[in-house]
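batch_manifest entry 22 of 60
target: Polysaccharide deacetylase
source organism: Epilithonimonas bovis DSM 19482
requested by: lab member K.T.
priority: normal
notes from requester: please return tokens only, no post-processing; we will run our own comparison against the previous entry in this batch. if the run fails, retry once and flag.
--- input ---
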Amino acid sequence: MPTYQYSEKQNIDQDQLITTIEKKLVVILQKLELNGFLATFFIEISLVKLLEKQLKNIVYAGHEVAFFNADSDTETIEKTKIFAEQFLQKPIRGLRQKYHQIDYPEIKKMNFSYVSNIEESSINFLWRKLSSKTEIHYKNDLTIIPESQSPYSQLPFNDFVFQVTPMRYYESMITESLKSSEYVMIYTNIWQYMTAEELPYKLPFYKRLNIGTNTEKRLEKLLQYIDESEIAVSRMKDYLF
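--- output ---
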């Protein structure tokens, strides 16, 4: 779970946080299984060793485990990658991070295959037009996956847009985007499924909108729409390789 510079810690210990994450993972896995969809789970590096059982459940269900880097250095990432690959008996191919947080050559040295970028923003605002290219491209022998952006609304398909955009409008964004692009990368974050009391950090009011059961309902509606629209869904590694 990423931290935020502007957030104040709440009185929640590590055991409480892990228990909450476990419960939310069960809900998400059940909804994906109900619709027969496979997804990629980007696990924050500091949580990998604390969620060993849950990561095994994710892989057992057919999903992909990749890494999310909040603020880990290359040594920590590499050691955690080796640890995870040993107990999962699966390669960790993907790393999600802020744009150029760790240089691509360093990521390649750690034997990652792709980077899922979170674009840097100079203002802390959830709706913005992306400044970098939005197509999948290649650099330093890595597959670079930028955030998708709707040509219809100019909104990126990031977690906050999923959280606050009216579902019918969000569905229209997907439909219009797929008319001009072969794919749309959709992201959501585990903390969005928590209540304000369960969060380890106090968030600004706009980041608390629709969190908890509201986000669960939004995910369920999204998956139903994708199923009814017969849109293909895949894990990152399946689509890329």
